[in-house]
Amino acid sequence: MIQPGTFLIHRYEVLAKIGSGGMADVYKALDHRLNRNVAIKVLKAEFSKDQTFVSKFRAEAQAAAGMTHANIVNVYDVSEENGRYFIVMELVEGITLKEFILAKGKLSVRETVGIAIQIAQGLEVAHQNRIVHRDIKPQNIILSKEGLAKVTDFGIAKAVTSNTITSNAVGSVHYISPEQARGGYSDEKSDIYSLGVTMYEMLCGHVPFTGDSTVNVALQHIQQEAEPLREIDPTIPDSIEKIVKKCMQKKPERRYPNVVELIADLKRAVRTPNGDFVTQEGLVDETSSTVVLTEAQLNDIKKSTGMTTAEAAAAALARRKESGYDPETDLAKDVKRDEKRRRKRSEEPAEDEDEVDPKVEKLMIGGGIAAVVILILVILVLLGKTIGLFNHKPIDELDSTTTESTTESTTESTTESTTESTTEELLILPEDLIGREWSVAKVTLENMGLKVEQAEDEYSDTYDEGLVIRMDPDAGTTVRPGDTVRVTVSAGKQEIKLRDLTGLSEADAGSYLTKNGLLYSIERVESDTVEAGKVISTNPDAGTTLNPGDSVVLTVSSGKGSTLVPSLINMTLTEAEEELKNSNLELGTVTEEFSDRTEKGRIISQSTSRNAKVEKGSKIDVVVSKGKESYSAEVTIGEDYNPFDEARPTGLIDIILKQEGMDDRVVYSEDCSSESFPIHFPVESSSDAPAYVYIKLDGEDIGGQITVTFQ
């Protein structure tokens, strides 16, 4: 088995194993050159060592690689590395037609015709390229998610050597054409026969021939007619039954000459289901060992006797026996004629000729003779009992006890023989069931005569939900019919629904994720609303379904963050608010103070000094200047200080304020007269120190001081 991660020819990276068959394992891979997913079919070791097989395999696969069609799984590349031969193919997401039939039981006529036309269209391209599939069966038809039917495994069947043809025939025995069953020459009409069997199974839900062994089934393909479809399901249109019947003719020349004509009839059947357009020749073949009749002959026998189709065929066999028909001789003639034709074709330079294993041919001949002889004996016994052939003793000599004893003895003998035969029969649990759908595995095992139990489902990172993980006994183990096989089915990857981690501490959130097998990483961001160290959000979001090993990103708050405080000194409040906003800060409490140095309305000081590092969103308090501090007093200059008389009736009066720590300054200056007194005016000062005023008239000090008290 190739491990995931392996590179083939430095181009294809193997991602996972997706299937296994009798001759090859199939892997999903990534084509790194074209950046696309592909399917790679790798030949198993036993085939890689057969150089004859390898040479034919490569030639056929390369021919298949030249075909491109919507109904064919396209082959991209054929290569080899270190003795490992592989084919690179289109990766089709979907299920096989076999799985589809098992899931639905049987398909509708419309579904059957639609799928059959698509298969035939794929075969048409192949046949035009001189490629015969030789292994058409529902397992080799993939139904994509887009609804396309795609034929796969081109070139594999043809490349089988004489050492491996038996294995391949056994694997497809339910769909094999009579000429393939005989080991004879096969061509495009062999594919048409197998397609007919596939349509038969789609319409009624089961293959036309079943048996206890592959040889028995193969002989039925050679000798027997399938039960008419309309006897199984009367709703099937007459034209569809005739199309399937024509495809499944024993003689290749009586089938459709090519798939083009088959497609035409299928399309006619869609338009006129009950139309009489399918040409069908009579079924009598005097040179064949197979008892075959026309429909009229069968109907005559059935009407006159009330027999079923199978009973009518048996009666016809008895009649031909009476007329000198020798099944053993006729079967041998058929085989010899096929062998002669095969040898003749092998002498011609034809590419499509197969080598036939003599062992297989002998087995088919011997098995065919034995089956026919047994069939004749059974029919003779049944007919003898019916007409009383064996009741030749007088009635008085027939003792009921003896009859009962004989019957019991015969039954016991038969039962014992059957039990012994069953006990000796060994089965091998198929390895290709691992990774397949549970329903498919169950039906397959039950059809092998095994009892099937489903063990408790298990989570799996390798197999999707519903696929088989393992069997007990293991795949490849030898078992007997009736044994019990316990099948463990994948429950898919273990799923965890992510809970809401918002508001949890970083430690608590990490502990939850670890306990559930999830990986996580931390991304820290600043937040104005979430406390530092708490989870803000997750990626993916809460409620998402995850599998063990998936990663979660925790977004954790680092708090509001920090910033540097700007200088606000000498700014107005409006200017300060704008500067704080730019630094992610806010203006705090505003107070006012008098200032001899700072203009009124501008900031004198701030609560946090410039360039200090603080948390974003912090508030900065400021002190705003009210200007210089002011004291006032009311001054009155009475008549006692009136300097005017008749000689000097008017003049300039200056009143000077003298205050400790302050410069002298004029606080009143007016042209006055005697009538101006008393003079009354207010005085303001930035100090409340002791002060007084004195008067000057036209610049001359007239003497006297008046005390001023500031409040």
Walk me through this protein's architecture.
This protein has 711 residues and is α+β, with helices and mostly antiparallel strands. It is built from 19 helices and 31 strands. Strands 1-2-3-4-6-5 form a 6-stranded antiparallel sheet.
Uncertain stretches of 5 or more adjacent residues: 156-171, 282-295, 323-336, 345-361, 386-424
What value does the average pLDDT take? 79
Q: What share of residues are in beta strands?
A: 15-25%
Query: Could you say what the CATH architecture of the largest domain is?
Result: Orthogonal Bundle
CATH superfamily grouping of the largest domain: Transferase(Phosphotransferase) domain 1
Gyration radius (Cα, Å) is 53 Å
Q: What proportion of the residues is helical, as a percent range?
A: 25-40%
Number of strands: 31
What distinguishing features does this structure have?
711 residues, alpha+beta, Phosphorylase Kinase, domain 1, Transferase(Phosphotransferase), domain 1, 7 domains, rod-shaped
